[in-house]
Amino acid sequence: MIVPLTSAPTLESERLTIRGPVRSDLPEFTRFMTSSPRMKVQAETVSKEQAWFGFLTGVGHWQWHGFGFFTLILRGEKLPLGRVGLLKHSNWPEVELAWHLFEGAEGNGYATEAAQAVRLWAHQCHGLKRLVSYIHCENHRSQAVAKRLGAVTDGTRAEHEPDAEVWTHLSALK
What we know:
5 helices; single chain; alpha+beta; Aminopeptidase; three-stranded antiparallel sheet
């Protein structure tokens, strides 16, 4: 039996089950955070201990805000493909719609598909009409996801992360 770590609902999209985090998600998340080539390029890899704290921070978001990261998996499968969700750290001015896919899951439209479902849920369940995404200025793949979601940027940088541009999702219902 899989014990949920949060109050996250389970969302469904065309190909994905989008559910709250469970303990068995930690190894794949740790692998991504400690060794992903994409994390290395942005100098954002962390230690195993830091990955554990990051995972628990995601769980804590659910307790504090009633939202956080969802884990996405292909319907009928068990292996996590990545995480998509909402974040609002104490020094962030707005709620972020964020995503990251684990190795091998990129290029299939999973981030866009999951982000659309999460954005609609955020609007319906939390009344969030405006979301932002803080995207590293060199992360062109993530920028492409933001564009597919209808987000726009004017190049403004995030105060808490100077290498990240602020992408604004104009409507949660698009």
